[in-house]
Write a structure and sequence with these properties.
With 417 residues, the chain is an alpha/beta fold. 47% of the residues lie in helices and 14% in strands. It binds one RNA strand of 83 nucleotides through helix 16, helix 17 and helix 19.
Length: 417
RNA sequence: GGGUAGUUGGUGGAGUGGUCUAACACACCUGACUGUAAAUCAGGCGACUUCGGUCUUCGGGGGUUCGAAUCCCUCACUGCCCA
């Protein structure tokens, strides 16, 4: 049993983790049976959680399951400081109502992973709003401009002649002071948070508190292989419907399969390793040879690996049944190119309608011009028959037929008159 | 406070009086290919259209001109240098 716990802890400290600061110290504390206060700061400006953010939450969950206290800090005050790289809008102070609303959304999403009943919540305005210049000056004195400007992303912006607001200097101070305020033992974050996470240690030291340990998880790439970010549109959101979520994961580049398994699921590492080696098998010369002579059928195709990846992830957020259904949907629709069973209906209110208008009205094109282009380029069909005439009309005889736009858009046409 | 250079479509970035809906690249969309994806190839990528056109866009506002992304004024914002 003892050993089992140690293995769990080792996995917590290594799976998907890029760096742990005071690793040995932290391991010792985790083993000691002490109940640690594990801090995570969350940003109330963007309520949409995606898989990239979920990696940290999964880690929090692991810790929660070992009996540690999860402390979530809602950055209602920090949110104002935020990132000023967006040139046109200095963000206004979030009003209480928005924060509340975003928080509710957040809780709902994070609740898919964490046991929210056991989470301790704080708004950082609780303590940050009370500080005056004197205190801020004191905190600020713990850091130098050099340290700050050496941060990679700041340095880059400085080099490129982009604006870096002085306000941004305050951000790490605030996040660091949060750790003091909640007396954090451990703080989690992405590797991009390094500086902010470490600032907590600085300030705790200054305030004669024991210094928190820091655990940084790797950032994962988005579905297109670039950095996962809401503004790139390459995220898989926790709120995505099962079919969507499944499809998005299937679109992830092959190279990321194992990384996703490690970071976004809790499939045992041994199984992941097995998949990895079986996938690599397919690439080697010997395996090709063996396959050619029919001596071996062990290997795993990236497609199948990805299917089970998508399965695992959807299961995590939507449950097993949903995952199974999503898998079927995907195979039928995209592999076998069948028309799915349940598709949205579009009710036509008149006797006939222009196809272009229908495509737009059903949400499958952004403008009539866009619809026309899709039609002209052969992206639109009705009951598997391609329509290429942009002037085409739909009428009574199309009642109940299935309109397909692109790979994903299915609409059942229903006439009301 | 002084000086100086800038602000172009989702992004980067050309363009300095008409041929500009604005090069090129990325992103995005459609199609082909495929084991999902990627890669590759083809086409597209402001809006509306009776498919002949019409209208809107180059930080905001105003002006000069037959004509402005391009010239002038003004406001806002940003970089850099100096104090």
């Amino acid at each position: 049993m003892e050993k089992n716990i140690e293995q769990q802890i080792d996995e917590i400290l290594s799976r998907g983790v890029s760096e742990v600061i005071e690793r040995e110290h932290l391991k010792k504390r985790l083993l000691s049976g002490e109940k640690l206060r594990v801090k995570l700061g969350i940003d109330p400006t963007s309520p949409n959680l995606h898989l990239g953010r979920a990696t940290v939450l999964l880690k929090m969950k692991d810790l929660q399951q070992l009996g540690h206290q999860v402390v979530l800090i809602i950055g209602d005050f920090t949110g104002v400081i935020g990132d000023t790289s967006d040139k046109e809008s200095e963000r206004p102070m979030l009003d209480a109502a928005t924060v509340k609303k975003n928080l509710a959304t957040y809780k709902e999403q994070a609740g898919k992973i964490l046991d929210m009943e056991k989470v301790e919540f704080h708004f950082n305005s609780e303590w940050l709003a009370k500080l005056g210049y004197a205190e801020i000056g004191e905190h600020a004195d713990q850091f130098s401009l050099h340290e700050f400007s050496a941060r990679e992303n700041i340095k880059k912006r400085l080099d490129e002649g982009k604006r870096v607001s002085l306000r941004e200097l305050l951000y790490p101070l605030m996040q660091g002071y949060d750790s003091v305020a909640v007396r954090a033992d451990l703080e989690l974050g992405g590797t991009d948070q390094r500086f902010n996470l470490l600032s907590g240690r600085e300030l705790q030291k200054h305030f004669k508190q024991p210094q928190q340990d820091v655990l940084m998880v790797n950032l994962i790439e988005g579905t297109d292989g670039r950095k996962m970010s809401s503004s790139w549109g390459n995220t898989v959101n926790l709120t995505d419907q099962p079919n969507d979520m499944f499809g998005k994961i299937m679109r992830v580049p092959d190279e990321l399969i194992i990384k996703y398994f490690i970071h976004c699921t809790r499939l045992p590492l041994a199984e992941i390793k097995d998949k990895e080696s079986r996938m690599n098998l397919g690439k080697s010369f010997w395996s090709k040879l063996l396959t050619a002579v029919g001596a071996k059928k062990q290997e795993l195709s990236p497609r199948d690996a990805k299917l089970s990846l998508a399965d695992e992830i959807v299961k995590l957020y939507h449950g097993e049944d949903a995952a199974r259904a999503a898998r079927e949907y995907f195979i039928n629709t995209f592999s076998k190119k069948e028309i799915p069973q349940d598709i949205a209906q579009f009710e036509v209110q008149s006797v006939s309608m222009k196809l272009t208008e229908l495509v737009v009205a059903s949400g499958n094109a952004t403008s009539l011009g866009d619809a026309r282009r899709k039609i002209e380029q052969g992206g639109v069909s009705i009951n598997d028959k391609k329509i290429t005439d942009p002037q085409a009309m739909v009428a009574k005889e199309n009642d109940g037929q299935v309109l397909k736009i692109g790979k994903m858009g299915f609409v059942k046409i229903v006439f009301k008159k």
